[in-house]
Amino acid sequence: MTGPGAHPYNAPDSIASIGAPLSTFALDRITAQFPEAVAERYLDRTGGAWAVIHAEHLPKVAAFLKNDLDFKLFTSIDAVDRLHLAESDPRFEIVYFIYSLSRHEHVRLKVRVSEARPEVPSITPLFKGADWWERFVWDFYGIRFSGHPDLRRVLLYEEFQGHPLRKDYALRDRQPLVPERPIKDIFRGPGTSGVS
Amino acid sequence: MADPHKPASPPAPEAPNPDTDAYAHEAELEAHLQTKRMYINMGPSHPATHGTVRLKVELEGENIASMDCEIGFLHRGFQKSCENVTWTQCLPYTDRLNYVSAMMNNFGFLNAVEKLIGLEIPERAQYIRVIGSELHRIHDHLTCVGATGMELGGFAPFLFAVEARELIMDRVAELTGARLTTNFGRIGGMNRDLPEGWSEKVIKTLDKVMEHVTEIDGLLTRNRIFVDRTKDTGVISAEDAIDWGWTGPCLRACGINYDIRKTKPYWVYDRLDFDVPVGEHGDNYDRYLMRIEEMKQSNRIIRQALRQIPSGPIILDDWRIALPPKPEVYGTIEGVISHFKLVMEGIQVPAGEVYDCTEAANGELGWYMVSDGGGRPYKVHVRAPGYPILSAVPSIIKGKMLADLIPTFDTINMIGGEVEQ
User: Fold this and answer.
1) Which of A158, A164, B131, B292 has the fewest other C-beta atoms within 10 Å?
2) How far apart are alpha carbons A187 and A76 in whole angstroms?
3) How far apart are CA B167 and CA B206, in angstroms?
4) Contact status of B85 with chain A (Cβ, < 8 Å)
């Protein structure tokens, strides 16, 4: 059972990219294909290449990444509330990481949304793995993902007020007591179940 | 969901096929009862949902018509807490993400912070990190395999696993001072060196642990009941696993050779000789086999690392990063000031952002961090490997038997601490 298998996803040169600087391959291709989608590109201090994508172009960029560039392994989504940073307009930044198993690199994308209209098109129809991460960002930052099939809170409860990872949610903020939910979705069988 | 108070229409009796059904001639004696869907709750405190997960299962007979997974009972506000303490003070929180392999979380976090600052840690510290990580990888896999065996009715493998775990925990306690939540390692290196005579004890411990692993292997791998329960259950295709974002042993069980220790070696993994087991079927049995094999590989890694480990410093000699040695703190004004500033203000991480990942026991442990240049993180995102894996379970279990849910939930090895942050 050991050693690399012959699966089509297993790249033959799996060790070739070791030590190479983080590549800008995917971002170069995106910029060439959809110049109108890319708002900004930069390298962070550790050499990671980033592209800021306009929200409305995100689905087609993601589809291009998945179908044409073989970035298929969905890694994660999260957001940053830039309220206290030097550059804080627009307020929220949503970060996307997608990995390519054939190129052995992550692509790093950002989408910026304002506080007034915190909404991004969902990429859950494209990547199943985005489902819970988008729910996470909705849960903790209050950013809506339009087109998400089931945008509920994921870790907190539905009655929770506010979005706790926003910087204006105080660390020791308290939540009101929540009345017990009526249990109407449970069928207890015939009889009164001890309730008269 | 359909109204549970109203019975569903009775299923149309299928015409029995004598070629496939040995009891076809008795079909006329079967009573076709009118059934309706039943909703049951598994968890949050069900023995098979280790961690606290509520599985809302809709049953059609014994088959799962649909399942909803409710998580968050163990949410502790990991990210919010990290944003309000110094970088070093985040370390105890990272322990509590995956409490079965705390050191791997510690070191993964440290690796990302060091990358953000741009530090290269001393070689000896890198070796200690590899040794600690692999010890905890064995620990994590033992827990998974033992619990799987137990929940499928074999109590002996669990006892062997716990016995082996206990041995590892003793070594970890000698190394770090704690059994579970180690808080070991500091930015720029480690907080203490290997104890006297520890390496020899680890070799002896590994002998013993591998004996237990062989025992578990012998009890489960060819056990008829175990194989029947795990083979071809909880199957996921490679394409789906990638799409859901699976990593680690669960992805490799589908035949995808992706291990960050090989594709992007960190610390000294490129100097160590080990294989990455790759499965084929993506079922529970393969996921179990991956873990057995990975324990054997980790055993190889630790032995090599203990042979190769060089002497030297274990932490950087830079008082902006690491605490000064105690004689300097008590004897010199520079030492006192550095100590004070590090403790009170924290390490000044230059402004910037980084995404970095390491291979934890269950897969890719990713960190996205933003620093605003102060002593505290501005944002710490953790990509826990169990989160995407758990999110796929409702889809892979749909239409399968309720009994298949137990081994599936076991072999994905969902850890509440990291999934629910």
Assistant:
1) A158
2) 38
3) 9
4) no
Q: What percentage of chain B reaches a pLDDT higher than 90? A: 21
DSSP 8-state assignment for residue B401: B
User: Is A160's Cβ below 8 Å from some Cβ in B?
Assistant: no
Q: How far is CA A113 from CA A57, A87, A90, in A?
A: 13, 13, 6
Beta carbon pairs, A and B, within 8 Å: 154
pLDDT-derived band of residue A173, with 50, 70 and 90 as boundaries?
A: confident
A47 in reach of chain B (CB within 8 A)? no
Q: What is the ipTM of this complex?
A: 0.83
What local confidence, expressed as pLDDT, does residue A94 receive?
92
Using an 8 Å Cβ cutoff, are B167 and B209 in contact? yes
Q: pTM of the prediction?
A: 0.84
* Separation CA B38–CA B30 (nearest Å): 22
- Measured between CB atoms, does B381 come within 8 Å of chain A? yes
**Whole-angstrom Cα distance, residue B172 to residue B367?**
25
Kindly report the nearest CA distance between residue A106 and chain B, in angstroms: 9
B259 closest CA partner among B328, B376, B268, B269: B269
At what angle are helices B386-397 and A130-141 packed, to 10 degrees? 120
The chain-wide mean pLDDT, for chain A, equals 80
